[in-house]
Amino acid sequence: MLNVNYSFANTCRVFVLLLLCLGFTRAADAQTGRTVADFDKGWKFHLGDVKGADKASAPDKNWRNLNLPHDWSIEGTFSKDNPASPEGGALPGGIGWYRKTFTVPLASKGKQVYIDFDGVYQHSDVWVNGHHLGFRPNGYISFRYELTKYLNFGGVNVIAVKVNNSEQPNSRWYSGSGIYRNVWLVTTNQIAIDHWGTYVTTPAVSANSATIALQVKVKHNLANFKPYTIQVRVLDAANKVVAIGGSIPSYPQLADSVATLNNSFKVKNPHLWSIESPYLYKVVTTILVDKVIVDTYTTPLGIRSFEFDADKGFILNGKPLKILGVCDHHDLGSLGSAINTRALERQLQILKGMGVNGIRTSHNPPAPELLDLCDKMGFIVMDEAFDMWKMKKTKYDYHLFWDEWHKRDLQDQILRDRNHPSVFIWSIGNEIGEQYSRTDTTGRVIARELAGIVRSLDNRPITAANNDPEPGSNIIASGALDLIGYNYHHQDYDSFHKRYPGKKFISTESTSALETRGSYDMPSDSIRRWPIAWDKPFTTGNPDNSVSAYDNVSAPWGSTHEETWKVVKKNPMLSGMFIWTGFDYLGEPTPYSWPSRSSYFGVIDLAGFPKDVYYMYQSEWTNKTVLHIFPHWNWEAGKTVDVWAYYNNADEVELYLNGKSVGIKKKTGDDLHVMWRLKYEPGTLKAVSRKNGKVVLTKVINTAGAPAKIELTADRSNIKADGKDLSFITVRILDKAGNVVPNADNLVKFKIAGPASIASVDNGDPVSHDPFKADYRKAFHGLALAIVQGKETAGSVTFTATSEGLAPATVVIKTK
Ligand code: GAL
Q1: How is residue 11 annotated by DSSP?
Q2: Closest Cα to atom 11, ligand 1: which residue?
Q3: Nearest one of 601, 639, 632, 603 to 620, comparing CA atoms
């Protein structure tokens, strides 16, 4: 390993900067030395095993044509008999084959060609032209194979991928099946930056200056060594060069070897990366041979400093900041697990609107696009590796592959993700079985080994999501963790320092409260934990398996939303929390089972519609002025109804029923909502929040009449004509006066004309067994969702919704 540390002398800095800028710009425009091609299009797919499909000549003419990313499970039919069980989403798994025929230009001869898979669920085998390239069991890991020596340059080539998700259950949540993340074809010269071959850190950051350390791994494939030079530029967000990293000379290398070269340099007056202003620089690393560019590689750079403090919690750029996070699984609701950048971005936008600033990638490495978005949008990511180690959680899960693969998978995760400024914490596992035993200390050994792997590659803090908070817990007792992570146990947060003097804390997972959007079927003022207080209905299932949308039902190990937040809010040493979960997800309908097939834990439902408690967080976690009252106002005459309000930036809220005041309420102490208990009479409920006697906000809920018409609202009416971009269309069932009809469940049919298709439909109902890939959906509590995907031609798309007895609606979306 060769290390060269180079720092520019100030005197020649400006001069060299100018020279290099000119030279670089011209050369880079002409050729960057590397192509990274989207390899998602034009695949063939067959569901089921096929003998000999690995052979280049295998017939695939009659296979289905599709573009990746693809999840075949989401296309299936819900059944309690699917081996994944309702815990896994009640959708089918199985074996699937993918094949792609492609040509490689003769001009690429002499180059290195690789295929990069961002993630395949799971147990993938890959062949090129009949040569087996490898097997990867882990469904969440990104991996690369080199194709060079098997390719027909100037001719036809075939990639075949077998995906085996037939052994089930292998997951505690919905996994999806297939090549569900993006695939890339990467072509480089024979001297090139290696896979995940840069590592950028910011060892010293102040307002005036930031030290940037860069490590570059260069792969040299030539038989005879060719000297090369590495040059480094830092570009700001406007693509202006703000620093030059100097030129690093190479040292002799053997054929097929990788050299590691180090460099460090300074950025003056850096624009710091923060939640409010996630400013991104780029580090552009270039390799030159005889002054010709042979490779160019761009690494994101966010300049920020942070620390966790035992007393002050989390500190970003010198200022304390509470991490207000959510845990989320990787599925995108009705789209399944097939990754889509816009769908992810929409999720993050909805979370930002609630005040969320942290994401825990529970319980596995995420799609790279999630981290790109978190870099750009300002989220603090806890990047998690595993849901189990050697001890299983389900019969066929990763424990079967632990011994052979954990080291490689963890290394690959860190190497892939460590340049993302949004990543602040590594988690080596969630609720790991090995934590509990007080006699078998395997958990300590593994925890130390995993932390050692992470530390050999990066110095960000390491945690684990422990649900055994005792000092005797193997993972905590291992001493391997920088941050002691608790899942749940909010009652124990305040005594943390008694248990762990001087240690740093993070609430890795909290809450697990249940709500069904739009359902208010239980009294609101007593907190219930299943199964203790509500045993039977949870085990046998409510008639409609819905849970009160009041924040009053939670897992026995968890809390209501308000309970945990009240504790975290007032204690500065509690660096942050991650709510279980931001969004409802497919699978784990706990404490229900079939006919439920998705979770109830989300602050936001599966379709992306906020539940009421979303506004509690919004009132606490954002500066936005909030007044949210619920429930709806359609009840049987004389029924006692609790009306809740979440509000902020006001001293009080007054509620009026049919014009008469029913009282002024104020939050006192640590209250997070106010409540009125009313006898229902139809009409109008009006809430007015006031500050110093002045009206801040007014909210009105009317008793809705019969369903009369459909309203459509597209989140975006202009989308890209790239075959990927999406418009999310909210369908509302309204009465003739325009009120949403709260219990409307009308069947709505969709028609689409123009260059787009319906990617999926949903309504957030956790017991619906209607397919997501359809052109119809029943409303659920007055709402439904249709997701429209543009094709690759520009044009005008007309989307129409009809329903028997209702006035139809149309929305127009442009693709360009
Ligand atoms: C946690 C676990 C999560 C989820 C949650 C449901 O203990 O880490 O994956 O199962 O419980 O409450």
Answers
A1: H
A2: 512
A3: 603
| CA 786 to ligand 1 centroid distance, Å | 29
Look at the block and give the residue holding tokens 């395949």. Answer: 120
Distance, in Å, from the CA atom of 120 to the CA atom of 177, rounded to the nearest integer, reads: 8
| pLDDT at residue 350 is higher than 70 | yes
Q: Is residue 357 part of a domain?
A: yes
The stretch 397-406 carries a mean pLDDT of 98
pLDDT bucket at 532, cuts 50 / 70 / 90? low
Q: Do 604 and 509 lie in a common domain?
A: yes
- Nearest alpha carbon, ligand 1 atom 2: 431
Site to probe by mutation for ligand 1, drawn from 432, 435, 475, 512 as the one with most ligand atoms within 8 Å of Cβ, is 512
Using the mean position of ligand 1's atoms as its centre, give its distance from the Cα of residue 610 in Å: 21
Using the Cα atoms of residue 449, residue 454, residue 456 and residue 459 in order, give the sign of their dihedral: negative
My answer on whether 182 and 194 are in the same domain is no
For residue 9, the model assigns a pLDDT of 32
Is the residue at 698 inside a domain?
yes
Angle between helix 341-354 and 613-621 (nearest 10): 70
Do 171 and 289 lie in one domain? The reply is no
What is the rounded average pLDDT for all residues in the chain?
93
CA of 175 to the centre of ligand 1 (A): 15
CA atoms within 13 A on the CB side of 187: 17
Determine the structural domain holding residue 219 and report its residue range.
Answer: 190-301
175 and 257 share one domain = no
246: confidence class by pLDDT, cuts 50, 70, 90: confident
Mutate to test the pocket of ligand 1, among 328, 361, 431, 603 (most ligand atoms within 8 A of CB): 431
- Is residue 474 within a helix (H) or strand (E), and if so which, with residue range? helix 474-477
Q: Which residue minimizes the CA distance to atom 4 of ligand 1?
A: 580
Say yes or no: 77 and 125 in one domain.
yes
Which atom number of ligand 1 is nearest to the Cα of residue 599?
Answer: 6
List the catalytic residues: 431, 509
pLDDT at 538: 56
The 3-state secondary structure of 33-75, one letter per residue: CEEEEECCCCEEEEECCCCCCCCCCCCCCCCEEECCCCCCHHH
pLDDT digits (tens, 9 = 90+) for 560-598: 999 999 999 999 999 999 999 999 999 999 988 899 999
| Number of domains present in the structure of the chain | 5
What are the tens digits of pLDDT across the range 710-765?
999 999 999 999 999 999 999 999 999 999 999 999 999 999 999 999 999 999 99
In this predicted structure, the answer to whether residue 647 has a pLDDT above a threshold of 60 is yes
Query: CB pairs under 8 A, 24+ apart, for 52-55?
Result: 53/97, 53/99, 53/160, 53/162, 54/125, 54/127, 54/130, 54/132, 54/160, 54/162, 55/130, 55/160
* pLDDT tens digits along 213-222: 999 999 999 9
